[in-house]
Amino acid sequence: MSDVKSKAKKKPVQLPDEDNFNLTFGYTKDLLEIPEEPADVFLYCEKCADWINQEMAKDEADWDVKRLVTVMGRLAAYLKMLRELDDALDYIETALALIEQYDLGPQQFIAQSLRWADILRYRGEFGEAEEVFESVLELCQKIPEAKIYEDVALQHMGKLNFDLEDYDLAMEFFEKALALRKIKNDQSLIDSTEMAIEATKLKIIGEGES
Asked: Counting Cβ atoms within 10 Å, is residue 36 exposed (0-12), middle (13-18) or buried (19+)?
């Protein structure tokens, strides 16, 4: 029996299907993401990490680099949600290194840079996060193919200033993000920004009453 086990091929790890997990999340009153089902998110992250390890165990010439970067970025985002911030940072920085090494283009760079900066924000590294968000926002406004991320960059800048308790500036960024999201006509994005605006209004009212 032991000989049979030793000769059997190890079953390949399949990339997990997001539809098989509850990855839905909400927000705290401080605009931090919180998963509805942390156990599902943890299991999803575990399976993504297994797939990444399997892929990177291959010869580098056989890597599916674009898919690796996409999965690493997604994994980093969910690890951030679980507050596994060191692991999240490791994955996103590896993804960014691969983007640079393989010259995967501005869209991948901007998408993963936004995730990187948001992880820095969750870690309380506000100065570095702000530098990244500002540089990404500038790219979004200069590069036509990056324009689709401008509302995301503005939303993140709003959240950063919310964390820094500069609620008036946060409101300015959220309102700019909302205007772009109404043009996109994506209701889930509109709802997210309107929720952030309402949370910011409460903070401004609270400051006025103190």
From this structure: exposed
In angstroms, what is the C-alpha Rg of the chain?
Answer: 19
- Please give the C-alpha separations between residue 210 and each of 29, 154, 179, 197, 198, in angstroms, as whole numbers: 19, 29, 31, 20, 19
State the Cα–Cα distance between residues 27 and 192, nearest whole angstrom: 9
Token pair for 187: 């209701």
**What would the pLDDT profile of 20-32 be if each residue is shown by its tens digit?**
999 999 999 999 9
Q: Which amino acid is at 103?
A: D
| Coil, strand or helix at 11 | coil
pTM value surpassing 0.90: yes
* Assigned architecture for domain 127-210: Alpha Horseshoe (1.25)
**What are the domain boundaries of the chain?**
21-104, 127-210
